[in-house]
Design a protein that fits this description.
This is DUF4131 domain-containing protein. By secondary structure, this protein is α+β, with helices and mostly antiparallel strands. It has helices spanning about 1-20, 25-45, 50-70, and strands spanning about 90-100, 105-115, 120, 125-130. It folds into two domains: about 1-70; about 80-130, no CATH class. Strands 1, 2, 3 and 4 form a four-stranded antiparallel beta sheet that branches. The relative contact order is 0.14.
Length: about 140
């Protein structure tokens, strides 16, 4: 059964890669199919159509599609690669941790508060160059 499930995950990855499915659809499908899978596993007879195996295969295919959708950032308009970070932006950061500086840089962990006036969230490894850095940044 594990080889079949591995093949189903690979099939899901291929489907997700070539059909460009947004990650929300397979995620919702998995959440809908999991309770159905539980009920079918309790009621299925030994004889007859293998509903449990079919549902398990569908869930693993959805898992493969979901993983590809998340890794390719499909259907996520607010994800950071789609924010145009190649252009100059105004960041509002709050320094959370100050690491030990070396001769070349002064590293900091900063929490992102806003990006160009829009509320944003996340963490950022910020490094200021040692030669250009005259005063320490305090949080």
């Amino acid at each position: 059964m594990s080889i079949k499930l591995t093949l189903c995950v690979i099939l899901g990855i291929v489907v997700g890669f070539y059909f460009e499915v947004a990650p929300l659809l397979p995620l919702v499908s998995m959440f809908v199919l999991l309770p159905v899978l539980y009920r079918v596993s309790k009621k299925q007879q030994r004889e007859g159509f293998p509903y449990f195996e079919v549902l398990t295969s569908l869930i693993t295919i959805c898992l493969g599609v979901f993983v590809v959708g998340i890794s390719m950032n499909r259907g996520m308009s607010q994800h950071y690669p789609k924010q145009g970070l190649n252009q100059e932006k105004v960041w509002h950061l709050k320094v959370r941790e100050v690491y030990k500086p070396n001769a070349y840089s002064h590293p900091y962990i900063a929490q992102i508060i806003a990006l160009d006036g829009d509320v944003a969230s996340g963490k950022l490894l910020f490094q200021s160059l040692g030669a250009l850095h005259f005063k320490g940044i305090t949080g």
